[in-house]
Amino acid sequence: MDTSWYLDINRFARETSWAHGFMAGYAASTLAPLGAGLLVLAFLVMAAYLSARRQPRFVPAVLWAALAALVGLGSSALVAHFVARARPYRALAHVEVLVGQGHGYGFPSAHAAVAGAVICGLALARRW
Questions:
Q1: How many C-beta atoms surround the C-beta of residue 116 within 10 A?
Q2: In Å, what is the CA distance from 10 to each residue of 5, 26, 114?
Q3: Has this prediction a pTM greater than 0.85?
């Protein structure tokens, strides 16, 4: 199923070649150097912490959400080591590659694990 989805997205990329320059430049100049996704998550945790300081009983829950990010990162690296699944553009022939060749394995995604851990942690902190 994931191969099918990847190939569908890749087919869309081939059909929108007019956007390749812009998207590759955006990824190289904005996303990669800043780690934009990590900055957004760090901002969310910081905003939650500042908000929780008004009601100190919520502060530990927010700090646990930040710790969950580290656990998510470490566990995804551990799982990736044992699963050792190649990145899709290395495993599949004749696919469009727009942005640089990442290192490491393709599954699980450390970005997704950290994002999921932070968002779930903050959602639970809010619920509590």
A1: 16
A2: 8, 18, 25
A3: no
